[in-house]
Write a structure and sequence with these properties.
Blueprint (H helix, E strand, L loop, with lengths): L8 H12 L5 H8 L3 H11 L2 H11 L25 E2 L2 E2 L3
Antiparallel strand pairs: 1-2
Helix pairs in contact: 1-3
């Protein structure tokens, strides 16, 4: 049985942010934070207002982009050509 590490408030905020993002899969959250899909759902339920949680669940349920195996694309991410690069948590200038 693996031991769960305690999540900081910063970790929880980042997980919630990733869970709301359409293109971030539950697999990415698992890889980065070690939380399975059901654990993410449980975290969202406890950390969000009930109405916000219901809105999120409706949005995520059945969404192909949240599940790696259901995606139509396998690699890459959409990135606007106008988007700036982020290096070491600083936005670089063009």
């Amino acid at each position: 049985m693996t031991e769960k590490k305690e999540l900081t408030d910063l970790d929880k905020d980042r997980i919630i942010e990733m869970a709301w993002e359409d293109r971030t899969t539950f697999d990415a959250i698992l890889m980065q934070f070690g939380l399975k899909e059901q654990e993410v759902i449980d975290l969202m339920r406890t950390e969000m207002k009930p109405s916000s949680f219901r809105m999120w669940r409706e949005r995520v349920q059945g969404r192909k982009t949240k599940h790696e195996k259901l995606r139509d694309f396998r690699e890459g991410r959409f990135k606007c050509t106008m988007q700036r690069q982020i290096n070491n948590n600083k936005i670089s200038k063009r």
